[in-house]
């Protein structure tokens, strides 16, 4: 197992290198010049060239790339073109809100979606099944920002239960932290709930006619035990896979949700950096997102062994 | 240095403690038009940084609500008979936020740094033979020849304001950003609470000595009436509106025009326009390439367009806009429609006749459309439609603003990655005269993107700069406007104002050329 983890971690390196090359090239090939943006409306070409020189953007693209890679290997992700901060500092300051939002979303989504999916499978073909599946289709179809606005309208403006926007760090009080996290997490979890509930229903349905389910029932097991102990555990591998793959979906959703709810996380940082063509920040954030995605896939692969003893690494 | 840092820290701590301890301490929570990313107002022209500058720095002169120049940090000033020597005496009691006294030397260093970056500052400095501080309260400026815009330049609002900073900070290389944020203005920047992408915080400067005159525009007594100001960055316009309705913020600096009816319906919210002079929409020509290398073809555009259609497309209701054919903003001293009364009438017959006379060969007009700025996006399709009706062939190319900003610096032909024209807008206070309006700069290679090249226009701009008699300045400004008919560098497409939205418990907002957050109370 340890050898497998080590091999997977080593395999991460070429993946990250490819991501680095791609993100670097894409940014350089995308129209937009940070120097012209920084220079503002009154600048002439001479002043813009001066800024470009100071940022090192007038160097050949290969030189820029190798300087960047060499700096990363030394643990230096560079300094943001716009914020007078190192990229590492910027990311560190934005990590907590995004982590909190992502974790809350996953917890909420799993807590809602898995029982819903199991229920839909158990009540297969009934009204409950159709309602759950209808909700799934709706969850997929409605854009995240629309769900966000609807929830804000209901819970913040009409009922006045929760704030419209903002984020409170956990160190400044758990109550405020949770109060501000509920709506964004609920918003972001809708699409995730739809995805997981659908997959749970299908997977559980697949195993419901297996011999061991019939055996469990014949032994007089109560239905809830049959469903959650026997059926769900055997159906878990595809569900865990979907939860892992859904992280990519989550990253995209975080960008929108953080904008709608004014959460100062990595999603907003990405949007701001892209709009300003802040190359060092965009590059570092994309690398971080890629690394997280690769590691989550590894975690998902390892989680298979918990649910299916036949899987060995 | 250590003692200065300690003094500064003590002052901020004292201000913070006073804030925490004061019963009923008042906080103004404002949602600004942009996030505060850069805090050096000399290094960048970003409007949000200018707003930040007015919070913590002060200026030697300032414009009042009627756009007239008034002394601010300066107590009195005099000019020699030959108009070559200007002497400015600072007010008593001016202090930096670190407790040190404001000296003339600080101001001289500040003017030199600003003069190295700002276009109007550079122009002023090109006339300056000597700038010095004969004593701690006196600034002396000796000119090579009379310059008619000394006070207007020192009082300029808008982009790149001559803010005063301590000498040690002002001596920072103008090409680099400052790293210490000490001013002498009515608020103190709380750098430790500044979280880019989230919020910026300012505390009342209890030691600030306001002028005795009532506050007017950016001039007069700047009295901070709240203990703390928080600029909360809310990127999403709809969320800004929801937060204001819900009472989570007190003020929105720039709500989009299409959401104004929603705000106007709420009984707890009021709309207010602090900048009555507003902004002017403009169409910029690239004079290097066909078809706009021909002045007559550029003039044909003026006949083809009309301001009403364009303003309706982006602002909607005439309550917030005004059709204005003046080159210099309507409501400003140099307002005039001389030479332009018959333009912007969508007189397609006249436009077609001009195109024929100029020998227009059907070269496509590459019109760059910025799609991510609501106040600009809709201008482009309307412009395209009107130009096509006049006989132009138009290639509308959509892109985000940052791409446009980059592409407009390219001198390549329009069909090889260059451009022919684009639409933008200026704060009216940035285009009050022929020197300030950078689109009138027709110095060829040294001009901004579009690179107009016209010796006559440059001669007029120079004579405006040297003229000290306001009546003669006005006559020269009219001559510039007439010259623009023969040599259009850009076209003015109407003026609009940006209302602010605030909750009714916020009182004391000032009409001013830039956002002024002093004088405001939260009841």
Labels describing this entry:
heterodimer, A: 313 residues, mainly alpha, B: 523 residues, seven-stranded mixed sheet, six-stranded mixed sheet
Architecture overview:
The complex is a heterodimer of chains A (313) and B (523). Chain A has 13 helices and no strands. With 523 residues, chain B is an alpha+beta fold. The longest helix of chain B has 20 residues. The chains are: A mainly alpha (313), B alpha+beta (523). Chains A and B meet through helix 2, helix 3, helix 5, helix 7 and helix 12 of A and helix 7 and helix 14 of B.
Structural class of chain B: alpha+beta
Shape by Cα distribution of chain B: globular
Shape, principal axes of CA atoms of chain A: globular
Q: Helix count of chain A, per DSSP? A: 13
* Tally of DSSP helical segments of chain B: 16
Distance separating the two termini of chain B: 41 Å
> Uncertain segments of chain A of ≥5 residues (pLDDT<50)?
none
Q: Helix coverage percent of residues of chain B?
A: 25-40%
Strand order of the largest sheet of chain B: 8-9-10-1-11-19-12
> What's the order of the H and E elements of chain A?
HHHHHHHHHHHHH
Give the assembly state of these chains.
heterodimer
Helix content of chain A: over 70%
Largest interface: A-B, 46 and 48 residues
Q: What percent of residues of chain B are in strands?
A: 15-25%
Return the average pLDDT of chain B rounded to an integer: 92
Radius of gyration of chain B: 24 Å
Number of strands of chain B: 21
Report the sheet with the most strands of chain A, covering strand number, pairing sense and barrel closure: none
Tell me, rounded to a whole number, the average pLDDT of chain A: 89
Q: What class do helices, strands and sheet pairing of chain A give?
A: mainly alpha
The termini of chain A sit apart by 5 Å
């Amino acid at each position: 197992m340890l050898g497998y983890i080590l091999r997977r971690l080593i395999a991460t390196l070429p993946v990250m290198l490819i991501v680095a090359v791609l993100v670097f090239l894409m940014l350089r090939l995308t129209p937009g010049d940070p120097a012209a943006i920084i220079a503002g409306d009154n600048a002439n070409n001479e002043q813009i060239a001066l800024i470009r020189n100071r940022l090192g953007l007038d160097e050949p693209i290969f030189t820029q790339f190798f300087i960047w890679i060499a700096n990363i290997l030394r643990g230096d992700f560079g300094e943001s073109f716009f914020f007078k901060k190192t990229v590492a500092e910027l990311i560190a300051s934005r990590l907590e809100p995004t982590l909190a939002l992502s974790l809350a979303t996953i917890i909420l989504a799993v807590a809602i979606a898995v029982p819903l999916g199991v229920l839909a499978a158990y009540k297969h073909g009934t009204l409950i099944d159709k309602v759950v599946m209808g909700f799934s289709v709706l969850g997929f179809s409605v854009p995240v920002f629309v769900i966000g606005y609807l929830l804000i309208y209901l819970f913040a403006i009409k009922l006045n239960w929760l704030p419209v926007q903002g984020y409170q760090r956990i160190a400044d009080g758990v109550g405020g932290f949770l109060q501000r996290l509920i709506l964004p997490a609920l918003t972001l979890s809708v699409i995730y709930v739809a995805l997981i509930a659908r997959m749970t229903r299908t997977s559980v349905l697949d195993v419901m006619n297996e011999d061991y389910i019939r055996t469990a029932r014949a032994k007089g097991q109560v239905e809830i035990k049959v469903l959650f102990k026997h059926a769900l555990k055997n159906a878990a591998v595809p569900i865990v896979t979907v939860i892992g793959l859904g992280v990519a979906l989550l990253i995209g959703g975080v960008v929108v949700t953080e904008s709608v709810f004014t959460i100062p996380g990595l999603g907003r940082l990405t949007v701001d950096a892209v709009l300003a063509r802040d190359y060092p920040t965009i590059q570092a954030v994309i690398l971080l997102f890629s690394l997280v995605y690769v590691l989550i896939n590894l975690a998902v692969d390892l989680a298979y062994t918990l649910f299916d003893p036949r899987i060995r690494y | 240095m250590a003692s200065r840092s300690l003094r500064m820290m003590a002052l901020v701590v004292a201000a913070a403690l006073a804030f925490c301890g004061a019963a009923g301490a008042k906080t103004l929570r404002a949602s600004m038009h942009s996030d505060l990313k850069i805090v050096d107002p000399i290094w960048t022209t970003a409007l949000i940084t200018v707003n930040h500058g007015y919070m913590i720095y002060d200026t030697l002169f300032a414009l009042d609500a009627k756009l007239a120049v008034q002394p601010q940090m300066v107590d009195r000033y005099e000019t020699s008979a030959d108009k070559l020597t200007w002497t400015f005496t600072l007010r008593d009691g001016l202090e930096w936020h670190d407790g040190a006294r404001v000296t003339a030397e600080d101001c001289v260093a500040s003017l030199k740094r600003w003069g190295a970056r700002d276009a109007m500052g550079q122009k002023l400095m090109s006339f300056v033979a000597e700038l010095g501080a004969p004593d701690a309260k006196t600034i002396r400026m000796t000119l090579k020849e009379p310059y008619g815009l000394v006070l207007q330049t020192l009082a300029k609002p808008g982009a790149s304001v001559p803010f005063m900073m301590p000498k040690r900070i002002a001596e920072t290389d103008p090409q680099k950003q400052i790293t210490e944020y000490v001013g002498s203005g009515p608020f103190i920047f709380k750098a430790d609470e500044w979280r880019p992408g989230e919020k910026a915080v300012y505390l009342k400067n209890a030691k600030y000595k306001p002028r005795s005159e009532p506050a007017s525009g950016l001039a007069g007594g700047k009295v901070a009436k709240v203990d703390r100001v928080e600029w909360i960055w809310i990127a999403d316009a709809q969320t800004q509106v929801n937060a204001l309705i819900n009472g989570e913020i007190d003020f929105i600096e720039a709500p989009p025009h299409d959401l104004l009816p929603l705000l106007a319906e709420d009984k707890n919210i009021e709309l207010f326009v602090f900048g009555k002079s507003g902004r002017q929409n403009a169409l910029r020509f690239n004079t290097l390439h066909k078809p706009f290398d021909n002045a007559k073809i550029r003039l044909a555009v003026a006949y083809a367009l009309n301001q009403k259609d364009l303003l309706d497309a982006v602002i909607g209701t005439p309550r917030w806009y005004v059709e204005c054919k003046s080159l210099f903003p309507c409501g400003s001293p140099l307002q005039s429609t001389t030479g332009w009364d018959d333009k912007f009438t969508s007189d397609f017959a006249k436009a077609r006749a001009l195109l024929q006379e100029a020998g227009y060969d059907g070269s496509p007009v590459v019109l760059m459309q910025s799609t991510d700025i609501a106040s600009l996006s809709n201008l482009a399709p309307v412009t395209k439609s009107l130009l096509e009706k006049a006989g132009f062939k138009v290639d509308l190319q959509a892109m985000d603003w940052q791409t446009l900003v980059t592409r407009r610096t390219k001198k390549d032909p329009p069909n090889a990655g260059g451009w022919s024209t684009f639409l933008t807008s200026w704060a009216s206070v940035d285009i009050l005269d022929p020197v300030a309006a950078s689109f009138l700069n027709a110095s060829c290679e040294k001009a901004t993107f579009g690179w107009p090249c016209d010796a006559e226009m440059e001669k007029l701009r120079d004579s405006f700069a040297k003229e000290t008699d306001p009546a003669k300045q006005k006559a020269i400004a009219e001559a510039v406007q007439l010259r623009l008919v023969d040599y259009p560098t850009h076209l003015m497409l109407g003026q609009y104002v940006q209302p602010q939205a605030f909750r009714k418990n916020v009182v004391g907002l000032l009409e001013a050329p830039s956002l002024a957050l002093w004088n405001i109370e939260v009841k």
